[in-house]
Specification:
This protein is an all-alpha fold. Helices cover 57% and strands 0% of the residues. The protein has 10 helices and no strands.
C-alpha cells in the first residue's frame, strides 16, 4: 500500500478506537493531527538510522527516542496545534510508567497517546521489517493482551481486541497483508 493509503488506514483505526472509547469529536480531531504528524521529527534523522537492519547503538537510540520532542519543538509556534502536542510527545509512554520521555503512567498519559501506543505497536508487529518476521493479526492481538496493564492501557487493548472481531473493522487491520 502507498504511504498515503497506509496513513489514512492508520487514522481510521485510531478514530474507530477513539469513538469506541467515547472521545469527543474535538479530541478525535486532535488525534487526527497527531496520527499524521507524530513522526514528522524523523525528517532530520539520518536515513541509515531509520533503515538500519540491526540493533541501534545507544547514541542512535537516543536520536530516535528524541523524535517526539523534536516534532513537538517544530510545532510549538503553531498555537492551534497546542492540544495535539501532548499526544505526540507521550505516545511512547507505557501504562506502568516505564516508557519515555517522562515516565508517566496510567491517566497521566493522555488517552490519545495511549490509543496511539496500541495502534503503533500493532502496526509494528504486523508489518514486514528487514530484522523481524511479521506477526498475523491474531498473534499481534495476543501480544497486546499479554502486555496489557504493563506496556498498554487495558481499557484501550480491550476496545481494540473487541473491534478486531468485527468484519467491518478488521478490513482496516488487513491493509498491509
Amino acid at each position: 500500500a502507498s504511504m498515503a493509503a497506509h496513513r489514512s488506514d492508520y487514522f481510521l483505526i485510531v478514530k474507530r478506537l477513539a469513538e469506541k472509547l467515547a472521545m469527543s469529536s474535538e479530541a478525535i480531531e486532535h488525534l487526527y493531527y497527531a496520527s499524521i504528524l507524530h513522526d514528522a521529527g524523523a525528517i532530520d534523522v539520518p536515513f541509515d538510522i531509520m533503515t538500519k537492519k540491526s540493533h541501534l547503538s545507544s547514541e542512535e537510540l537516543r536520536i530516535v527516542r528524541d523524535l517526539p520532542a523534536r516534532t513537538v519543538k517544530w510545532m510549538k509556534p503553531m498555537s492551534f496545534m497546542k492540544p495535539v502536542l501532548p499526544i505526540i510527545l507521550y505516545h511512547h509512554e507505557q501504562y506502568d510508567g516505564t516508557g519515555y520521555p517522562s515516565g508517566l503512567k496510567h491517566d497521566q498519559i493522555p488517552l490519545g497517546a495511549r490509543i496511539m501506543a496500541v495502534v503503533d505497536a500493532f502496526e509494528a508487529m504486523t508489518t514486514e521489517r528487514p530484522y523481524k518476521t511479521r506477526l498475523t493479526i491474531d498473534q499481534a492481538m495476543e501480544d497486546l493482551k499479554r502486555n496489557s496493564g504493563t506496556q498498554f492501557d487495558p481499557m484501550v487493548v480491550e476496545a481494540f481486541v473487541a473491534l478486531s472481531r468485527r468484519k467491518s473493522f478488521r478490513k482496516y487491520l488487513e491493509f498491509k497483508n
